[in-house]
Amino acid sequence: MSSHAGGGSAARAPRAPRAPRDGERPAVAVLADAFPVVSQTFVAAEALALERRGHRVRIESSARPGADEVGDGMRLAATYLEDDRLPARLRDLAWLVARHPLGCLADLRARRRWRRQEPVLPLRSLASVARRAQAAGDRHLHAHFAAGAALTALRVARLLGISFSVTAHAYDIFREPANLEEKLERAAFSTSGCDYTVKELRRRVAAEHAVRVQRVVMGVDGERFLRGSPYPGGRTVVAVGRLVEKKGFRHLLDAAALLRRRDGLDRLVIVGEGPLGADLRHHAERLGLEGVVEWAGARSQDHVRALLEQADLLVAPCVVASDGDRDSMPVVVKEALAMQVPVVASDEVGLPEVVRDPWGTLAPPGDAGALAEAIDGILSLPAAERARRGRAGRAWVLEHCDVRREAEKVGELIERAVAAQPRTRSSAGLRSPARGRGRARAPGAPGDPHRS
Fold first, then answer.
1. Do 195 and 141 share a structural domain?
2. Do 143 and 253 have their domain in common?
3. How do the pLDDT tens digits run along the chain, 452 residues long?
C-alpha cells in the first residue's frame, strides 16, 4: 500500500480531469473512515475487483487505523485526510468557494442539521477531499459504512455535481444510525450485504428511495481462499472477530466447557482483539479452558486463511448486543466455506442466508447448550462426510458470494449513476429532506429493487 500526503497537491491548481474515452469505466474514489482495517478486508477486496473491472480506483480515508487494527491494504494507494496541513486546507477552501459558492453556502446551512446526529467536518477539511476528487477525475464516490465517510461523500458529491453511493454494514444501521435516512435518500444507490440489513434499510425510507437500496454481498475471492491440503478431520474449532459482545464469544467459551463432558475439543482458536479481551480470558480461566483455548490476537487475512486450513469447524456465535449492535453476514463465514470448512452459527442476523444444510448448522443465539450440540453434531461425523459437506459449501459460496461477481453489480450501478448525473458545476442545494417539495431526487436510481 502506498500513501500520499493529502495536502501535497493543494499548493497548485489541479489539472482539469481527463474526459473519459468512449467505453472507459468511470473513475471511482472509495471513501472510508479508516483504512486498511484488519476487520474490514472487504473494502480493499471490492476496490481491487472494481479495478479489475476497468475502473480507476483510489482510496480516500479520513485516518489510519490504530496500531492493533491495521489490515492488508492489498497494495491500494490511499490518501489520508489527517495528513492535510492547515495552509493547504485553506488554499483548497479558497479554491472550492471560488468555484462553487452556492454549493458552499448550502453546505454551511445544512451543517447544523447534520450536527444533531454526528460530528461534521469543517468545510476547509472537506475542500481538500473535493480538490483531490476534481484533480483525479473522479466521476463517482462510494463510501463504506454509513457514518462519517458517507456524509463526506454526500457533501463532496453535491459540491462537485457528481454521484455518490454508500454501503451500510451493521453498527451504522442498528447502533449508530447517524443521518442515515438522508444519506440513503440522497445517494444514487445504496447497498448492504444481506437480506436482513437490506430489509431494515428499505424500512427506514419511503418507497421511492427504498427501490435504490440493493443487496450486494461482501464477497470472497475463491482463488485466494482455496485449500492447499486435505481436510484435517480432527476437532479444532476456529472463531474470528473483534472481542465485543455481538460476536457471542462468551457463549462459545461456555459451549466449549460443556463439550468437555463429551469428546471435547482439540483446540479452540479465537482470532481477534477488542475491549472484552481481558474479560473473556478471565472467563475462559474460570471455566478451566486454559489447555484448550488459544488467543491468537488480531491477524491478517493471510494468517486467517492459514488457520482455516487447519480448522475442522468455524463457529460464528453472533448475538444482538445490549446496545443494539449486531453483525450482518460476517465475511469470515464465507471465507471458511470457500476453504471447505463447515460452519456452526447463530440463527441470527444474516447468518441463516449463508449457513445452510449440509455445510452448516444453526443454533439459537446466546444458547450455549444448543451451540455445544451443534458443534458436536458436526465434529462427531466421519471426516469424509465433513469434507463432503465442506465441498458443498465451497460450491455454494462461489456461486452466490463471489467477490468479482458482486463487484460487477456495484460497477453496473456506478455506471448507471454516472450516466444519469447531470453535468453541473455545483450542488443544486442541500435542503433538508423534511422540506420535501422541490428537493432534487438523488440521481441514478436503479429501477428494479430485486435486480441484485
1. yes
2. no
3. 333 333 333 333 444 444 455 568 999 999 999 999 988 999 999 999 999 999 999 999 999 998 778 877 768 889 999 999 999 999 999 999 999 999 999 999 999 999 999 999 999 999 999 999 999 999 999 999 999 999 999 999 999 999 999 999 999 999 999 999 999 999 999 999 999 999 999 999 999 999 999 999 999 999 999 999 999 999 999 999 999 999 999 999 999 999 998 889 999 999 999 999 999 999 999 999 999 999 999 999 999 999 999 999 999 999 999 999 999 999 999 999 999 999 999 999 999 999 999 999 999 999 999 999 999 999 999 999 999 999 999 999 999 999 999 999 999 999 999 999 876 444 444 555 544 333 333 333 333 333 33
Structural contact between residues 191 and 46, judged by C-beta atoms closer than 8 angstroms:
no
Report whether 397 contacts 339 (CB < 8 A).
no
- The verdict on residue 186 lying in a domain is yes
In a shared domain, residues 314 and 415: no
274 and 415 together in one domain: no
Nearest to 239 by CA among 230, 231, 247: 247
Q: Does residue 452 belong to any structural domain of this protein?
A: no
Same domain, 396 and 295: yes
β-sheet bridge partners, residue 40: none
The burial class, CB within 10 Å (0-12 / 13-18 / 19+), for 90 is middle
| Beta strands across the sheet bearing 313-316 | 293-297, 267-271, 236-240, 313-316, 343-346, 360-363
Helix residue ranges per DSSP H, 73-146 = 86-99, 101-115, 123-136
Identify the CATH number of the domain in which residue 92 sits. Answer: 3.40.50.2000
For the chain, the domain total comes to 2
User: What's the DSSP call for residue 244?
Assistant: S
Q: Is residue 225 part of a domain?
A: no
Does 161 lie in the same domain as 133?
yes
Instruction: Show the domain range for 304.
Output: 236-400
Establish if 451 belongs to a structural domain: no
Peptide bond preceding 358 in cis form (omega within 30 of 0)? yes
Cis omega (within 30 of 0) for bond into 330: no
Same domain, 306 and 321: yes
In terms of domains, do 346 and 384 share one?
A: yes
List Cβ neighbours of 231 (8 Å cut-off, separation of 6 or more): 312, 340, 341, 383, 386, 387, 390
Q: State the residue for C-alpha cell 455506471.
A: 415
pTM above 0.85, yes or no: yes
Distance CA 62, CA 354 (A): 33
